[in-house]
Amino acid sequence: MRPTLCALFLLLSIALPAQGQPSYVTWTFSAAQQEGQVYLLTFTADIEPGWYLYAQEIDEGGPIPTTIAFDEHSGLESFGSILEEGEAVSGFDEMFQMDIKKFKRKVVFTQEVTLKPGTRSLTGYVEYMTCNDEMCLPPREMAFAFSFEKG
């Protein structure tokens, strides 16, 4: 019994710190109907002071870029490029030893999508990584769900 408890405690002590990592980014999501089946999806990241969120385009060997992915493409007839707008900081990053584009304070990602008729919802996730000037947190995924009244 005692070896089992020790093993369980060891497993929990390893797993809990990863689960208990603080988050320095708060996400909000919204959808606005443009016309007919066309919607503008907005993914907003509010970033705590001193922390950064990385752009979508990062060279290999750098931090994990921000990626927006849909769980099912079956509800999408078409989708446009994801645009990013915010207070960008571009230049040489000492931690990664390369030029990097990252955002501080707030960044808004937008994407125009056309839904297939009858689509009532879209789900997916944003994968992102945050760092400050001294350390990086492990990449995270934040789930999102959009609901549409008219399909």
Question: Main attributes?
Answer:
151 residues, mainly beta, Immunoglobulin-like, seven-stranded antiparallel β-sheet
Question: β content, as a range?
Answer: over 45%
Radius of gyration, CA atoms, in whole angstroms: 19 Å
Number of helices: 1
The first-level CATH class is given as: Mainly Beta
What is the CATH architecture assignment?
Answer: Sandwich
Pfam family, one: DsbD_N
Protein name: Thiol:disulfide interchange protein DsbD N-terminal domain-containing protein
Domain Thiol:disulfide interchange protein DsbD N-terminal: 27-144
Organism: Phaeodactylibacter luteus
Question: Can you walk me through this structure?
Answer:
20% of the residues are buried. The protein has one domain (23-147): Sandwich (Immunoglobulin-like). Residues 1-18 have low confidence and may be disordered. It has 1 helix and 10 strands. The chain has one helix spanning 2-19, and strands at residues 25-35, 38-47, 52-54, 67-70, 76-79, 83-93, 98-115, 121-128, 130-131, 140-147. Strands 1, 2, 3, 5, 6, 7 and 9 form a 7-stranded antiparallel beta sheet that branches. A 3-stranded antiparallel beta sheet has the order 4-8-10, with no helix packed on it. The chain starts with a helix and ends with a strand. The radius of gyration is 19 Å and the shape is elongated.
